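Q: Fold this one first, please.
A: Sequence and structure below.
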Amino acid sequence: MSVKPSIAPGTPANMGVDYVISYDYAAAKDKAEATGQFTKLINAVHNVGMRTEVRDGSQGKVLVFVSIRSEQKLVGAVYRSRVKDWLHGVRPAAPDKETQRSLDAEPLTEAERLRIVHAMLTQPTSDGGAGITPGKGEWTLVESIFPLHDSEFNKEWMKEWSTKWHVTPEDLRKLRDMYGEKVGFYFAFLQSYFSFLIVAAAVGAGAFFLLPQYSTFFAVANCLWSVIFVEYWKRQEVDLAVTWNVRNVSLLQHKRARFQPEGETQDPVTGEVVKVFPAWKRLLRQALQIPFALGASVILSAIYAVVFSIEIMITEVYNGPFKSILVFLPSVLLSVFVPMIIGVLTNVASRLTDFENYENESSYEAAMTQKVFVFNFICSYVPIFLTAFIYIPFGNVIVPRLDILGLMTEATEDDKASIFQVNPDRLRKQVFYFTVTAQAVNLAMETIVPVFKRKALKKATEIRNKRSNKAPASPIDHEDEKDFLTRVRNEAELSTYDVTDDLREMCMQFGYLSLFATVWPLAPVSFLINNWIELRSDAAKICIEMKRPVPYRADSIGPWLNNLGFLAWMGSITSAALVYMFSTPVAGQELPTALTVSGLLAAIFVSEHIYFIAGWAVRLALSKLDSPGLVKERQERYIVRKRFLEESVGVDRETEGKEGVLEQLGRSAYKFWDRQHGVEEAVEAGKLIILEEKKTQ
């Protein structure tokens, strides 16, 4: 097509386009299906007040450019959204009535605009949306719905962040205004984590050079650091949520398109009839998570245990032919079987979460996240647990009994234990691998490999089309939009960014630090360097390697916060066990001395109680300190209550001017409200103040 698009109100950098819908015309069974679903798509978009322009995509796909039909349509949607926020307590005050006519009173950010337009496209028709769900239900040919990158902002973002050491709150605000709060919270978390790592790295470096291996002092310091960071981030989340006006936004639940209700009931508050799913039935389905988690743990742990045993036998017992080649066998086995098993388990977890039939997206995401966390916990930490708590303490007993191949046939059963020598340095090397080598490999896999992969796939497609003489004809574009359409086609082929993947990565890294930094105190130094690069490489990944994410809102990092707390608690137990088992007064000795179960349990008991006491003390200390976000929240509450009373309660103007009763009225109402009373109680309190004031006159 060569028709120049009609420019709609919107972002000038993207020719007025709000969203692009990628429609896979070639995937249809026949022409009737492709035409019918496409016609339905265009009608659905037009029915919610959008205008469309259609252009050729690539490989049999069609690109549908979507934009708001009129600015007034957008203004109305923004006003309704803000009123809804106010009713649910997200906003401290109702939006200005001028917002019904213009957005000049309260400017609209790019993220808010795109979020509202996306809601209009994807929300169910019962909620006023078009109900388009890519790849699901009646929209099987709709491949994706995505906003376009702002190239100028991305260039400025990467340039600015690459030349500064510290990311400021203003930088995070700009990022949030462009990409939404969900992405903003991730980068805010990463920046806070990075700042705290400076302290951890300094303490770790000091412990590495000045203190003995498995130092009790460093173990306690590391445990306290983990507790303080988790509690600080909880407070920081509240500050950011208030500053970004998303406090309690998680209460605004968006219904899932795949939710299957099994009944109707009358809402006791609104009186409307709503579709529901019985809570007891969902609880029974959720109970299946327990055997699933146990089964997944057993399967993955068994795989790691078997591969671990093979690795020990090959590297430390076997001295026969092809040893230099066989040492790679364990890595090959893990590379083949673990991804395959995890893929199967992830598919089962997804089906199980679907079976639990959650009504809203946030509940579904939280349930799925916890299941995925189980897989990552096992894959990340089980190898080190096996070395620390199985191989080193009991290797002399267990490994000779694993000699099923007769590698130690020359020795008698009594002599095998004396022939095999446990490698005490194995644990430190393993922790070094996961905290340094694996981090570097993962960083390369995220930033460098996708570039070569995309170029290789593109080249392979060109070669295949050339050999089969089926090279697709190049679209004929209007000269004024040629560069723009080339960029859009490239973005349409990119992967979809999921901030959950990056949060998972940081959570697992925090686990290594909390659980095993006692083994190698320089781990926080490695993470400090890695995360400085990660903060900037993730920005580049979003700008270059991924589609622009839909700017979803959030008031926290979600269920990952609970996982951080769990890992901090686990760290207190693991650190105590490592210090008790491996710290000895003999210089250079790393094998465990005489151990007792009671001594180990006592060490864990003391360490765990230090963790709980430290957590309580940190929470108490933070509760005594005012933060900018909480001060702002109290100020907004006071102003709102004062304005409400000013409008709702008849105040004698003479009395007001003489004694300042209105000011007193506002303060008293605020005090009532701050003690968790409602607005009605505050109003009654204000009336009493006025009556008392009149009696004294």
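Q: Good. Now the second chain.
A: Here it is, same layout.
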Amino acid sequence: MFNPLKVNKFPEKPGVYLMKDIEGKIIYVGKAINLKNRVKSYFRNKESLSPKVRAMVSQIEDIEFIVTESDLEALVLECNLIKFHKPKYNILLRDDKQYPYIKINLDAPYPYLEIVRRIKKDGAKYFGPFVDAGALRETIDAIRKIFPIRYCSKDLSKLPLKERPCLNYHIKKCLAPCKGGLPQGKYMEMVENIILFLEGKTDLLVNILKEKMFKASEALDFETAAEIKEKLISIEKVRQKQHVVTMDLKNKDIIGYFSFENIICLMVLFVREGKLIERRPFIFNDSYQNEPGEVISSFIKQFYDDMKTIPEEIILPENIEDKDVVEEWLCFKKGAKVKIVIAGENSEEDFKLISLALENAKEYVMQKRLWEKKEECNVLEELKQKLSLQKLPFRIEGFDISNTGGTDSVASMVVFEGGLPKKQDYRRFKIKTVEGPNDFESMKEVIYRRFNRAKKGDEKFGEIPDLLLIDGGPGQLKYAKEALKELGFNEKIEVISIAKELELIYKDDKDPIELPKTSEALKLLQRIRDEAHRFAVTFHRNIRAKRNMDSVLDSIPGIGEKRKKALLQSFPSIEEIKNTSIEELARVPGMNKKAAKAVYNYFHSVLH
């Protein structure tokens, strides 16, 4: 237990303090204007502390500190340490790495859109994060419909390329800089318009395009004017989906706060040029009853730490303790003035925006709880009781093996949270160490690999499940448990298997558990098992199909490795290649009329 008298030797300077438990693990990181006074406050009157802080203080074995030159430096250091250590008692924003961003590398000769999950300090422009994958797809589709930016990631440092432009050029969806002759200035002008679009500056973009349309029309270049008009119509369709919520044209983020039971929702509304363009909800588990100001302050620091576009104003529902230093930090990151506005202190319009954010946050939480109560408290509670599990199995991971006579063995991992699939967490594995049709050893390999990566800190495998579901009987279950035991996870994770024939559930090699056929808990396990099977079989078929395609294409005269690769990238199956005309085959990069005829003739003379 930490001796509070040690705090008397702490300096009365700004800095960061790190609280550690008996194992030396950092459990909390905080910043202070005065390190000595701030840390002392944890030990003065324990009865006045919140349940969270009391629980944390009881685990403190040691406290280290780092002195900084200023409050701002302390805030920056605090952000970095929280991000790196992910302490148990800090309020942690769900890691942005699982949210995609749109990246535009402006240093590339002819930039293209990339979807990435990690922001780097590489001079590129990043837009996001996109919490909703559907919104990301919709945004990219809209951009590509309006602007013919290139789809591919080819190296265009040396132009022209030897290969022909792809199909997108022929259907006027790409300007094809790869063929050479396209002025870089013209292409970059389009990229700048895309950036305006992604920044929500559609009014400015529309004015720029209208001016160009009128100039083209005056110059009797009616074809260019018509093309610009089509773009304006498409942009207008996007703008119609955006609602005007304020006459103030400043760019603003509005953060609404709502808590219910143990759930906190922070709803961020993004207002650009007076229009509400997007909303993003962030959910926190508030089992420690944190104060709203503490949650909001922690959220701002983590959310805007990686954001490339910080607005002119951030409107909050209530004041935060370190408002001035957070505002100074935001200005430093943006390189321009950023103002934190507390709703009600400035204008009635800001208060209306916060009310809108609150309403959205409340609706989101209540819908979430309605579903959770219906699904979790019924199906998951039934599953816990019927199988005598130690805790509610909110996150369940299902595993299955697929092969054909022991060849091309693969495994699948599917994830269900709260009874619903979480497809972004699905994973696929090629079996590496097992030869022949040995499902037992294959299952052991994949379970070992999955949790070994978690043990090594791989963020893709960071979340630990409450329950593992193995497709199979006691044999597969035994080998899965062996893998967990070797890694030290055997006491942390419960494992069951489900055998297909009689739908019996095994927790060990003793008597199986038989649930009624009408049981919702059994139906959930069957859904997870069937999804794992589907995912494994699909992966296995794709591998086999690719191998078969390789084999077939190897038989066609004039089709070498480069052309084979190009065909495999352009067409998903042999059937598609077979049904493609000579003209379309010739447009595939690396192909010509002669090679296209060879492919066409092969399928229409040999196979039919």
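Q: Anything worth noting on the second one?
A: The mean pLDDT is 84.
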